[in-house]
UniProtKB/TrEMBL annotation, chains A, B:
Keywords: Cell membrane, Ion transport, Membrane, Transmembrane, Transmembrane helix, Transport. GO terms for cellular component: plasma membrane. This is Trk family potassium uptake protein. It is a multi-pass membrane protein. It comes from the Bacteria. InterPro entries: Cat_transpt. It is found in: Cell membrane. It comes from Proteiniclasticum sediminis. GO terms for molecular function: monoatomic cation transmembrane transporter activity.
Length: 449, 449
């Protein structure tokens, strides 16, 4: 994977590319045309907003529905789409449009962006991905319009349909409903909640997995069509979503602050929604700060885990969790190798998963420490929640985002960026291309737990 | 490490042995002679107390200083000493006293209990360990008496000196000062705090490490005397203790609820004490529930990590953390193997560390979920704190222990037991001895974060 040329590494191009889009977006948002009041907006707030949009996080310091003008909202929507699909897909379209051939270097960058295994068919990959994305988003937008047009009239209804379809598919969590309340005001609208939840799940699973599922359906050989990666990602995702739904159903059933007053179908839909959204969409249909302790724990754990690689989601990823869980199971079964669905994983794959997981913990701990100094009056829970939300690019909050200090805003922007680009990618970019060392030290022994 | 005989596995003997001591202790504590009031105590409360003592946790539902009679307190002290040194040392002394030879099976059990690498010299190991333990405890008891006698008179002062020396060395965290306030009432007594902190650090590092340090001092070749295990454990412990001290010094400096009113030396000593005690002693010199968010995070993280293997401490252990951190560093440096001080670790060592770490997380998540149902009115933070405290056999609390429901008491007792005996040990005991399977599946690929 390491290139010996003196050019920028794929890691660096990816990292710099995201940063460029963020700065451009922040500049546009700071202009008077972007705000309802027609005034300049502080660059600190626009950097935070643009980072939150490009990293599809959804944490906002300024109310998306009330503060920003339609122009500002469109900028945010485009930043979300760029972030969600990746700027690489965009540059590929550009390359296709102007008829240029894609260079090997460009292909390598794309490979990193989508975490695919080989260079073959990256272009057709991107083309199909865009077709898939726009189809799903378009269909969902129309369904959402059937609900929003009766509520807000034709113009606003169409606009809201498109905006929220994009925001949900890209797992961005931005909403236009105002007053920082996300979708709690419409939490009895089953069509809206289920459409958003399905968009989030589809977007969060990753295009590659869907391509394999389609291929399986087309050729009627699902077993052969699914790669090991897809099997693991689907298994972990299903366990998390349905396990989470069950936890919310049990623990919020009698919680007067959340679901007590609801009918059973509404309880079910809101539980499913609450289980879906922390990985890593960021909409909320019930109050986050008034959930039961178990509900909060599941939400926080899900924010840390996030979605699947090559998707629109952040966090340490379902595959990382899967690798660690399968390693645990293999150790308990007395196996030497990590076994997964009749395959074993290489040592380097497992070690990489350990590294990603631990980097995630380190980032969260550092984030909580920094916010702890700067957010006087905020509780431990509020701060931990905010940092996990940023790292998983989730966007849920217990309400402290709008009042954050400058240092905290910068810290959370950095964490969102690390969570989106991938902590390991950033570290490897900073480290540069080390030469492979072939020294192997003698084995040492260590006692464990 | 697996024995093919039809006898009980070392894992099972160890697990059953601990359980037997707990039940015996609980029975004694439930008798009228054990309480000040001269009444029978409910078995639920005595099981909790005995488990807390044998697992050297220090969570208490009944005030150790006020509820229990001197007889009851002595039972608790003996349970702590048995738990701290391990019932294996006791059974070895018994074997030595009656002149019996120790069988291979007994040696294997001891090996498991102390996590040593080979069978050689286990007996002399235990003998030296007891000498070391009683020397340190005796010296510390005398130092503590110089402080306690002026406060409480000769009889009570001597008794308090012995009790707290044992409790601190064994990382038990039980205290006799009353009203569930631990050592906060004497948090300006530098001698007491430093003596307790040193006892905790000495006990928490593990006897094996100290034996190597002594050997290094005696032969003046520290570099050769220290095993890889000792180097890792000492390094991680030093980083945690001094890193933690710094965090508490910075974050509690101006906290009016904890250290604001103290002089600089007192701030320093209390920071050092606060950094030492969550791993896994359980005394507290400043208020836990009023700490800064950063202080709470460090405390909770330290409770989960715990002390070193083969020591009186619980948690996932410093060596487990060390292995994961060195794996992260090795991945970032582009190495294929986990490298530690010029050695590489075997794949199975790293996988075992992953398993222990993940089992810890699973236990904590399940614990929080159970307590969340049963502790109506308790906050997420209080519950998480309580469960982490039980798992790390720490004993710190945000105040909910005395009012716990029956289900929560049983759950926490189980978690203390798992934390003390080691989650992996328990799982392997339950799983029994699986035969080694030599099938190796073909390699599969997975995408990570
Ligand atoms: K999001
Ligand atoms: K303890």
């Amino acid at each position: 994977m390491r290139i010996k040329k003196k050019t920028l590494s794929p890691f660096k191009i990816l990292a710099i590319g995201f940063a460029t889009v963020i700065f451009t977006g922040a500049t546009l948002l700071s202009l008077p045309i972007s705000s309802v009041s027609g005034q300049f907006t502080s660059f600190l707030d626009t950097i935070f907003t643009a980072t939150s949009a490009v990293c599809v996080t959804g944490l906002v310091v300024l109310d998306t529905g009330l503060y920003w003008s339609t122009f500002g909202q469109l900028v945010i929507m485009i930043l979300i789409e760029i972030g969600g699909l990746g700027f690489m897909a965009m540059s590929t379209i550009f390359a296709i449009l102007v008829g240029k051939k894609i260079t090997l270097k460009e292909r390598l960058v794309m490979q990193e962006a989508y975490n695919t295994f080989n260079l073959q068919g990256v272009i057709s990959h991107v083309r199909y991905m865009l077709l898939f994305t726009f189809s799903v988003q378009g269909l969902a937008a129309i369904i959402l319009m059937t609900q929003f047009i009766p509520m807000y009239g034709v113009g606003k209804g169409i606009y809201f349909g498109i905006f929220h379809a994009i925001s949900a598919f890209c797992n961005a969590g931005f909403d236009l409903l105002g007053n920082f309340t996300s979708v709690t005001v419409i939490n009895t609208n089953v069509v809206v909640l289920m459409t958003l939840a399905m968009l989030i799940n589809i977007g969060g699973l990753g295009y590659m997995v869907w391509r394999e599922i389609f291929s399986g359906i087309t050729h009627k050989k699902m077993k052969n069509a699914l790669s090991l990666h897809s099997k693991v990602v689907i298994t972990i995702s299903l366990i998390l979503v349905f396990g989470g739904t069950l936890v919310f159903l049990i623990f919020e059933w009698n919680n007067p602050a959340t679901m007590q007053g609801m009918s059973f179908p509404h309880k079910l839909v809101n539980s499913f929604f609450s289980s879906t959204t922390p990985r890593t969409a960021g909409f909320n249909s019930i109050s986050n700060s008034e959930m039961s302790p178990a509900g909060k724990l599941v939400t926080m754990a899900f924010m840390f885990i996030g979605g699947s690689p090559g998707s629109t989601a952040g966090g340490v990823k379902t595959s990382t969790l899967g690798i660690l869980i399968f390693t645990l199971i293999s150790v308990l079964r007395g196996r030497d190798e990590t076994e997964v669905f009749g395959r074993h994983l290489s040592q380097s794959t497992v070690y990489r998963a350990v590294a990603v997981f631990l980097m995630g913990i380190v980032i969260v701990v550092l984030g909580v420490t920094v916010l702890s100094i700067n957010e006087v009056g905020a509780t431990f829970e509020q701060i931990l929640y905010e940092v996990l939300s940023a790292f998983g690019t989730v966007g849920l909050t217990q309400g402290i985002t709008p009042g954050l200090t400058a240092v905290s805003k910068i810290t959370l922007s950095t964490i969102m960026y690390l969570g989106r680009v991938g902590p390991l990618t950033v570290m490897l970019a900073l480290a540069g291309q080390k030469q492979k060392v072939n020294i192997k030290y003698p084995e040492g022994k260590l006692l464990i737990g």
